[in-house]
Amino acid sequence: MANKRTIPVVAVFDVGKTNKKLFLFDEHYRVVFERSARFIETVDEDGEPCENLESLRLSVFESLKEIFSHPLFDVKAINFASYGASLVYINEEGEPLAPLYNYLKPYPEKLKQEFYQKYGGEIEFASLTASPVLGSLNSGMQFYRLKMEKPEIYAQVQYALHLPQYLSYLISGVAYTDKTSLGCHTNLWNFDKQDYHAWVAEEGILEKMAPIVSSDHVTSAIFTGSKHAVGVGLHDSSSALIPYLVSFKEPFVLLSTGTWCISLNPFNQQPLTTDELSNDVLCYMQYQGIPVKASRLFSGYNYEQQIKRIALHFKTDITAFRNAVFRPDYVALLLEKYGNKVNINWKELQFASRNLSAYENVWLAYHHLMMDLVSQQYHSTQLVVVGTNAKRIFVDGGFSRNVVFMNLLAITFPEVEVYAAYMPQATAMGAALAIHKSWNTQPLPNNIIDLKLYTPVQIKVNS
């Protein structure tokens, strides 16, 4: 029997490419326990770096042993969120048959061409599956490659599980497929028919896919003598969207910023166009099984590269940019001198080719970098906003704390309310919220996200 003083909690494993985190949330979705780990990658048979599955498995079990024996916590449920574009192939005993191949692993060009020629060509296929042609990042292509190149391993596969579902399987012993992982540019799902694409059955792969269940599905399991519910796991981008879907009913766009800046519009179910696919627009699947149109920019990475360049040129400590102050007068000066012209190819960051000697000081250069980044962001976000009635943009992640970025974004989207959203651990919290009814006796919370509205500042440019 649990002690009356113990706290009912849900345990969530948030497994990223670099950091693996465990969180315990209480019934009010406050983090009451947190742990982070990093593992050294291993390599596959071709020498390509990949996740160390055995280290990950051991870490999950060791962490669970610790929290289940902790005197303060009564673990009611467990769920998982992780990157989803890699598959674990298990045999009838549940043992992995191959490495967890890295989604950045180069894909054989000949095999790719043969596949798309066989199934209607790149444009038509990408449109149906909402999956730009991304090689190994299309996880279904990894499975196809295994069948073609390693038939002896393929023959032993009982199920192919995306990583979130494999982690769930470790605890529940039951294999499932979740739609948020299926819908993440996998090449497996036909968004028009809301079913597997025909090629999956034609290649015999369908029989090796575990049954599909909803994202709120749980399995009852026993761990160290304690009974608890185990969720099926979610793709991390879809999981991070859940707190916003729970909190806001009016149409919005979530701009999730990090290495990639991803604009997610859960209120845009229009089919992907050829133009959108060519501009790196794709679809994710939200936890309720509805498509989420998304566009991507490599802005976080580009920002890091350019501030290093600026700091080196002006002999400035790179940490100074963390406390950057928004200067409307600098924006006006830059507009007077350079105008507001954008490269025809907006996907290329214009600032990367600008001459730093042209700027009088470090902060003029910095503001021009941010103007160029936000100009790119406008075009990228517009791809998922157009044709919808979304009137709010919520920005989370690193750029939400950058007042220069946020002010410029508000100026660039004057017809839309632009908010910085502060919510620690959105991905993990989303996985907890997905199975709320299975562990939590309290109503869904309505105050889990702190918002700050940015009102457009008037920029006075001398004619």
TrEMBL record:
Q: Does the keyword Amino-acid biosynthesis apply?
A: no
Give the source's domain of life in one word: Bacteria
Q: What is its EC number?
A: 2.7.1.-
Give the UniProt keywords, A-Z: Kinase, Transferase
Signal peptide limits: none
* Gene3D superfamilies cross-referenced by the UniProt entry: 3.30.420.40
- InterPro entries, per the entry: ATPase_NBD (IPR043129), FGGY_N (IPR018484)
Give one GO term, molecular function aspect: kinase activity
Q: The Carbohydrate kinase FGGY N-terminal domain covers which part of the protein? A: 10-231
Identify one Pfam family in the record.
Answer: FGGY_N
Q: Which SUPFAM superfamilies match?
A: Actin-like ATPase domain (SSF53067)
Q: Which PANTHER family match?
A: GLYCEROL KINASE (PTHR10196:SF69), SUGAR KINASE (PTHR10196)
By sequence similarity, the record places it as follows: Belongs to the FGGY kinase family.
Q: What is this protein called?
A: FGGY-family carbohydrate kinase
**Source organism (scientific name):** Pedobacter helvus
The major lineage groups are:
Bacteria, Pseudomonadati, Bacteroidota, Sphingobacteriia, Sphingobacteriales
